[in-house]
Write a structure and sequence with these properties.
Layout (H helix, E strand, L loop, with lengths): L2 H19 L3 H7 L4 E10 L5 E12 L5 E8 L4 H17 L5 E8 L7 H15 L8 E5 L5 H15 L20 H19 L8 E5 L3 H12 L3 E7 L2 E4 L6 H11 L9 E3 L1 H5 L5 E4 L18 E3 L8 H9 L4 E2 L1 H4 L2 H15 L5 H26 L3 H20 L4
Helix pairs in contact: 1-3, 1-14, 3-14, 4-5, 6-7, 6-12, 6-13, 12-13, 13-14
This protein binds nicotinamide-adenine-dinucleotide.
The site of nicotinamide-adenine-dinucleotide has 24 residues, from helix 7 and strand 7.
Length: 415
């Protein structure tokens, strides 16, 4: 993926919504730029005794509505422009969900598949050390993202707390339960996505039960979406990871699929399934397509061939602007990323609130509150999209940007 494209895409989306909202040009100008951009060097001694320096980024896009919030990913494609786009999307995501946050994102340019657990721990701890003056429960709160997990968050929390001299669980979310994590956080992104699909279908007087589903990406978002879709009575007919995909018209049982993936690390060779490519998966005839891998998967090149009746973006930025237009013209609704994958940050917000209170909720409470927030955000987005005869991405952006712009206007500009 071309990084300039990701950032250009984020700016183009902002321009489109600014025009539609007739946004104050001064506020539009402010929102184009991240508030803070950090580039850090992360030197570590690798297992073979050689020193290697990795580059890490943390971008805080906006803090008008509260501290900034967003994940940290470890991936070879991470660059500054890439992180800038992801940080801006976090601002809109938090705003559309009504969370008291601004947006941020971070990343380390590395290939985690080629690093040992010890090396990953060193990168995480050194990155946290470099970011320490800029993050904190009232400043900026990281979380897991692509190829980072609850374990990385535990190392971050431990490093930050060691500096502080006391436990600071609220500095990161997505932590293990034992150190202040929340029930439901692991499933939250996929759970939110499934709630969003169900609410959308309910609005259209349809049911998720019996729907055929194709899922691209089989990490935290994709694999849990498989489990929850199956639980909700849908039939998951195709799944994929970075090495390729598997298809079975009768449905791929979650238990068999995750056993195979956990055993050998990939989906290739899944018994009783047909091998398909990621491209074929995206173009499958199905009721719901869930892109849950990386950016820019549905573009003007393949948007005309998409046969899904609904797309729910569990991944960030999987659909280009041009593809969004083509899909809208073809009558294929897209539940946009800032809405469809917001379950993760919603439950992250719950985790943070529980950490600040020192009082914890049950799994049922978490799920119920997540449902309420998702259902309200989907309803507002669908209502606006229908009233204005626009796509749901533009509608969600209008709701989000309006909230951020209003906060910026009321707070005013210092000095
Ligand atoms: P993950 O690291 O757990 O999994 C990523 C998955 O994508 C892996 O299965 C990998 O094999 C697959 N993948 C990588 N490259 C691919 C390719 N070219 N084609 C097909 N599959 C490919 O990451 P995740 O946390 O599941 O995140 C996936 C997406 O969801 C990202 O866009 C992320 O930003 C977004 N997201 C995640 C969360 C969360 O809480 N985990 C929250 C919001 C958004």
């Amino acid at each position: 993926m071309n990084d300039e494209n990701t950032y250009q895409l984020a700016l183009k989306q902002l321009d489109r919504v600014a025009k539609k909202l007739k946004l104050d040009p001064n506020i539009h100008e402010k929102l184009k730029y991240p508030k803070t951009t950090l580039i850090v060097s992360i030197p570590i001694v690798k297992d073979d005794g050689k020193l290697e320096v990795f580059t890490g980024y943390r971008v805080q896009h906006n803090i008008d509505r509260g501290p900034s919030k967003g994940g940290i990913r470890f991936h070879p494609d991470v660059t500054l422009d890439h992180v800038k786009a992801l940080a801006m999307w976090m601002t809109w995501k938090c705003a559309v969900m009504g969370l008291p946050y601004g947006g941020a994102k971070g990343g380390v340019c590395c290939d985690p598949k080629k690093l040992s657990e010890r090396e990953l721990e060193k990168i995480t701890r050194r990155m946290t050390n470099e970011l320490a003056p800029f993050i904190g429960p009232r400043k900026d709160i990281p979380a897991p993202d692509v190829y980072t997990s609850a374990q990385n968050m535990a190392w971050m929390m431990d490093t930050f707390s060691t500096h502080a001299g006391h436990a600071v669980p609220g500095v990161v979310t997505g932590k293990p339960l034992e150190i202040g994590g929340s029930f439901g956080r692991l499933e939250a992104t996929a759970q939110g996505c499934i709630f969003a699909i169900m609410e959308f279908l309910k609005h259209k007087k349809k049911k998720f039960q019996g729907c055929t589903v194709a899922i691209q990406g089989y990490g935290n978002a994709g694999s849990v979406a498989h489990k929850l879709a199956e639980k909700a009575g849908a039939r998951v007919i195709a799944v994929s990871d970075s090495c390729g995909g598997a298809f079975r018209a009768e449905g791929l049982p979650y238990a068999d699929t995750i056993r195979h993936k956990s055993g050998c690390g990939f989906l290739e060779g899944l018994p009783e399934a047909e091998a398909i490519t990621n491209r074929e998966l995206l173009e499958l005839d199905c009721d719901v397509l869930i892109p849950a891998a990386l950016e820019n998967q549905i573009t003007e090149k393949n948007a005309g061939r998409i046969k899904a009746k609904l797309i729910a973006e569990a991944a960030n930025g999987p659909t280009s602007e041009e593809a969004t237009r083509i899909l809208f013209e073809r009558g294929i609704p897209v539940l946009p990323d800032i809405l469809a994958n917001a379950g993760g940050v919603v439950v992250s917000c719950f985790e943070w609130a529980q950490n600040l209170m020192g009082y914890f909720w049950t799994e049922r409470e978490v799920k119920q509150r997540l449902y309420e927030i998702m259902a309200l955000a989907v309803k507002r987005t669908v209502d606006l999209a229908e009233a204005e005869e626009i796509d749901m991405r533009l509608a969600a952006y209008m709701l989000a940007v309006r909230r951020v712009a209003e906060a910026a206007r009321i707070r005013g500009l210092y000095p």
